[in-house]
């Protein structure tokens, strides 16, 4: 029976509501995993908190949109609404990054319910860059933090500082995950870095998207 993966993406189109600071999903962080999962023969769906059209961070398509991402770009114009998803039908979830995720992933009840179910059921929870913002203060059914005791990675404080966006973030992602009990493992800034721990597979930054997807494929095969 074919495996199924749900890719989750943001609907937030600005940083801290500032129209002069457009954001959204980082295109490659949704597209590379989508292509990897499809190539492995998996069924792949894309969902967002509100459904419908998803903003693409303009910085992620500078220099022209890569032709190989055209299909995914189209799919991002009509995503599923998270609360309408029958999440029990999926074997893995993948939380795509982009700064938009910092604003509508944390505290989202639908995402938190899905993650709690997946952790309890031993299914794969994966994400890259700012996608793990969904883990922030999320808890399991027993009231513990979702990432308590889990080794993982995400966009680091140093990388946020380097991007000169720390002051605009609702919280520092690395710090928040550490406060929630995660064993945060840092790699070199801007370099591919993937951490697997239990049913979690996480990547640090955009350069890690493909490697996280490949790790998920290997786990599901």
Textual characterization of the structure:
The chain has 221 residues and is α/β, with parallel strands linked by helices. Helix content is 28%, strand content 19%. The chain has a 7-stranded mixed β-sheet with strand order 5-4-1-6-7-11-10. Strands 2-3 form a two-stranded antiparallel ribbon. A two-stranded parallel ribbon has the order 8-9. Strand 2 and strand 3 form a beta hairpin. The termini are close together. The model has no long low-confidence stretch (mean pLDDT 96).
Alpha carbon gap, first and last residue: 11 Å
Which segments are poorly predicted (pLDDT under 50) over 5 or more consecutive residues? none
Total number of beta strands: 11
CATH architecture: 3-Layer(aba) Sandwich
Number of domains: 1
CATH class: Alpha Beta
Question: Which whole number gives the mean pLDDT?
Answer: 96
Query: How many distinct helices?
Result: 7
Envelope shape:
globular
Helix content: 25-40%
Strand content: 15-25%
Helix and strand succession? EEEHEHEEHHEEHHEEEH
Q: From the 3D structure, determine the CATH topology.
A: Rossmann fold
Keywords: Hydrolase, Lyase, Protease, Stress response
Domain DJ-1/PfpI: 31-217
Protein name: Intracellular protease/amidase
InterPro entries: Class_I_gatase-like (IPR029062), DJ-1/PfpI (IPR002818), Prot/Nucl_acid_deglycase (IPR050325)
How would you sum up this structure in a few lines?
This is Intracellular protease/amidase. Helix content is 28%, strand content 19%.
